[in-house]
Amino acid sequence: MTNSDINRLKDKAFQVFGIFCTFIGLVVLAVFLIDIIVEGITRIDWDFLTNLPSRRASRAGILTAWVGTLWILVLTTLIAFPLGVAAGVYLEEYGRKNRLNNFIEINIANLAGVPSIIYGLLGLEIFVRQMNLGGSLLAGALTLSLLILPIIIVTTREAVKAVPRSVRDGSYALGASKWQTIWNQVLPASFGGILTGIILALSRAVGEAAPLIVIGALAYVPFTPSSPFDEFTVLPIQIFNWTSRPQEEFLTNAAAAIIVLLVITFLLNGIAVYLRNRQQKKVKW
Amino acid sequence: MRVSEKIIEGLLWLSAVITILITAGIIWVLLSESISFFQVVSLAEFLTEDEWTPLFAEKEFGILPLVAGTLLTTAIAIAVALPLGLTIAVYLNEYAHARMKQIVKPMLEVLATIPTVVYGFFALTVVTPFLQTLIPSLAGFNALSAGIVMGIMIIPMISSLSEDAISSVPRSLREAAYGMGSTRLQTSFGVMVPAASSGIVVSVILAISRAVGETMIVAIAAGQQPRLTLNPLVPIETITTYIVQVSLGDVPQGSLEYKTIFAAGITLFVFTFALNNLSFWIKKKYQEKYD
């Protein structure tokens, strides 16, 4: 065999190896989803969705967990959406190249890399203790808002940046002020991109357990929360709690709750991808 | 008119400045609680003592076992994710058809959207029992299984970022390599990967930082026994797991045990902060070399 034959053989071998590596991740993903569906799907019924937690696995349900997750989603959106979009718009439209803005940018990139559990410690000290909110929904939502703020800011900036100069120039030419231009032209034009970013950020928030455990969200809440100041639990914490128990039946419960959580996560991601594709198709500047 | 414009600009500015307050808040919270911890436990003891038992009657405050647990699970995760992620990146760039790349890349990114508590469940109930059939001495909680699953989770981080880095290498370099008669493999590892090395290194550093701060997988599957070991088969405890463990229990506020989670937190923060800034620095220093 000549040298070039050997090289060609190595090339082919790597191609096979490449296919193997690419699909092993996907195969694991598939095995994993099938395993969970097989274990959990029969456990999901109306009672499972509407029952309160219980010490008996067969009677335990996820009502408080999914209601808590829903509350957290709504409150986190209300807090993080205006804050993140405002910051993103400022940095893109107003921020001049100066020391402070440069520092803000580096800082946001840094915040995106802070582990979520550290946000939990921040929330524990500031919201739970200093602001005396306790382990309430509000404290949880505030903590998660800070966690997803960097994602929203970055995607808002990208969406705003994608709006061409000519749109702004046209608006200015008609006598609009800077804010009128942003509010009436730039934001509507970039809304699809901003929305995509927010939904992706929420899908991240929905799966977080660690920071909420640190601020003191409970695994056992015998009632559904009715105000932002109530104690709460969320699906990931309920799953964690059931997974940590030795009895087999609780693992089945955990698998069933995971199916519900994954449906929510994939739904949010699906909406985001759909919006992004529609935006890319529709808008051609 | 003028005034309201200024007010709006001020409000927007305030929102941007809040991000600085978050960082300041994190540093302040971690420092203030840690300082009162270090008034009782000396920094030397914290950094050199080889046992971590703050919740026992006989208290020892050496962070090393938690650091060892964290580094062990991280090393296993990177050992899984780096070869797989880099191979995927090279394969998608040099071998796969554009259409396949378009389909596979988003599918791999699904791996990154799955909540980590779900990965923890997977590690504990599927991967550990499977590994136990191969390694009978494997404990029910261990670093190996948690590390492998964490590695699978961060594959898309390395493959996507590395793929971006490789595909931004100028065409001329690739074509020159092919022109010299190189195979795809030679072009990839002789030219493209070295040319994209800064981007690949950045992706690996970010992946390490992510693995160091990962919580739920290790909290579920790696155990809660701090020990200074590099044996992947026995239960260990990571920094993040310790924080979760204390948060779940009834440790009275203001007690020394309570302050330990902030001391552990600041250790974790120092690690990830250093890694993140290292990645920014590399990116800034080596980017746009070809423009």
Structure description:
Chain B: It comes from Pontibacter ummariensis. The complex is a heterodimer of chains A (285) and B (291). Chain A is an all-alpha fold and 285 residues long. Chain A folds into 2 domains: 3-43; 47-282, MetI-like (MetI-like fold). Chain A has 11 helices and no strands. In chain A, 46% of the residues are buried. The mean pLDDT of chain A is 89. By secondary structure, chain B is mainly α. Chain B has 2 domains: 2-39; 68-223 and 271-286, Orthogonal Bundle (MetI-like fold), CATH 1.10.3720.10. Chain B contains 12 helices and no strands. Chain B is globular and about 70 Å long. The mean pLDDT of chain B is 90. At the A-B interface, helix 1, helix 3, helix 4, helix 5 and helix 6 of A face helix 1, helix 3, helix 4, helix 5 and helix 6 of B.
Count the strands of chain A?
0
Give the averaged pLDDT of chain B, no decimals. Answer: 90
Question: What is the CATH first-level class name of the largest domain in chain B?
Answer: Mainly Alpha
Which fold does the CATH topology of the largest domain in chain B refer to?
Answer: MetI-like fold
Return the structural class of chain A. mainly alpha
Q: How large is the count of helical segments of chain A?
A: 11
CATH architecture of the largest domain in chain B: Orthogonal Bundle
Descriptors for this entry?
heterodimer; A: 285 residues; mainly alpha; 2 domains; 11 helices; 76% helix; 0% strand; B: 291 residues; MetI-like fold; globular; transmembrane (chain B); MetI-like_sf (chain B); cell membrane (chain B); phosphate transmembrane transporter activity (chain B); MetI-like (chain B)
Describe the secondary structure blueprint for this structure.
The complex is a heterodimer of chains A (285) and B (291).
Chain A: H1 3-40, H2 46-50, H3 63-94, H4 99-112, H5 116-130, H6 137-161, H7 165-173, H8 178-206, H9 210-215, H10 235-243, H11 248-282
Chain B: H1 2-38, H2 43-48, H3 64-95, H4 98-113, H5 116-134, H6 143-167, H7 171-179, H8 184-195, H9 197-213, H10 216-221, H11 239-248, H12 256-286
Domain ABC transmembrane type-1 (chain B): 67-279
Keywords (chain B): Cell membrane, Membrane, Phosphate transport, Transmembrane, Transmembrane helix, Transport
GO molecular function, one term (chain B): phosphate transmembrane transporter activity
